[in-house]
Amino acid sequence: QVQLVESGGGLVQAGGSLRLSCAASGRAFSSYVMGWFRQAPGKEREFVAVIRWSAGRTSAADSVKGRFTISRDNAKNTVYLQMNSLKPEDTAVYYCAASSWAVVGNKANQYDYWGQGTQVTVSS
């Protein structure tokens, strides 16, 4: 069983930065695939970024490439999402997710566990 708690959301002006954190409880955290998703009002949940067992294996959605960076610290059981050059269209609730399977990690149905979400609002 894994529990995920996100933090770091807030209100920021366009062009600003935020760093989201996702603290995980449970064993074998380093073996999980960890992802970030977001959901804006009236829209479906969408993939943002994923990081696999090795910190060198990451991928991100085209809409955030070059602006967002996912990373993990297995010693702290924490995954991060550094968000730079934020745009109003990045406004959403951001969710952290964990999968115990060897998944690609770019679809929500590939994940077993979800956090409660943290709100990110980018003003123009």
The stretches of 5 or more residues where confidence is low (pLDDT under 50) are: none
Give the N-terminus to C-terminus distance in angstroms: 40 Å
**Secondary structure tally: strands:** 11
How big a fraction of the residues is strand? over 45%
How are the SSEs ordered, and which strands pair?
Blueprint: E1 3-7, E2 10-13, E3 18-25, E4 33-39, E5 46-51, E6 58-60, E7 68-73, E8 78-83, E9 92-99, E10 113-114, E11 118-123
Parallel strand pairs: 2-11
Antiparallel strand pairs: 1-3, 3-8, 4-5, 4-9, 5-6, 7-8, 9-10, 9-11
What would your notes on this structure say?
With 124 residues, this protein is an all-beta fold. The protein is built from no helices and 11 strands. The chain has strands at 3-7, 10-13, 18-25, 33-39, 46-51, 58-60, 68-73, 78-83, 92-99, 113-114, 118-123. Strands 2, 4, 5, 6, 9, 10 and 11 form a 7-stranded mixed β-sheet that branches. Strand 4 and strand 5 (46-51) form a beta hairpin. The radius of gyration is 13 Å and the shape is globular. The mean pLDDT is 93.
